[in-house]
Amino acid sequence: MTSAENDVTLSELKKKMADFAKERDWDQFHSPRNLLLALVGEVGELSEIFQWKGEVPRGLPDWEDKEKQHLGEELSDVLLYLVRLSDICGVDLGKAALRKLEINAIKYPVNLCKGSSKKHDQIVNNNSSSIKDDVSHDSV
To answer: Region annotation Disordered: residue ranges (predicted)?
Structure first.
């Protein structure tokens, strides 16, 4: 079995979340506001895992399996609430994410940003005014 066969799509998650909520009669509670607040709470729980650890290396080589499992659960909670919120708000999250990547490619051209953590409004070039006019002021 290849990894592509194991991949889960946003559409599959959206359907599973909708079915999960419907089976429990939770649609009545899944307003955009309530879902956003639940998402923020889960991001807080995710943050607590890293709190006081300082910087950690990629792959978390020094973490115990139990810690990594807990991290996976909290990351999943964030993802599931985000998918549910986008569904309830009528936003195609996949398309929105791809569009945002395109916008950011314009805001952060490789030749000006490679290896730099500067925000787009700190990048000085001749095209900076056209970049600001072409894209929103949000960033990933």
So the answer is: 118-140
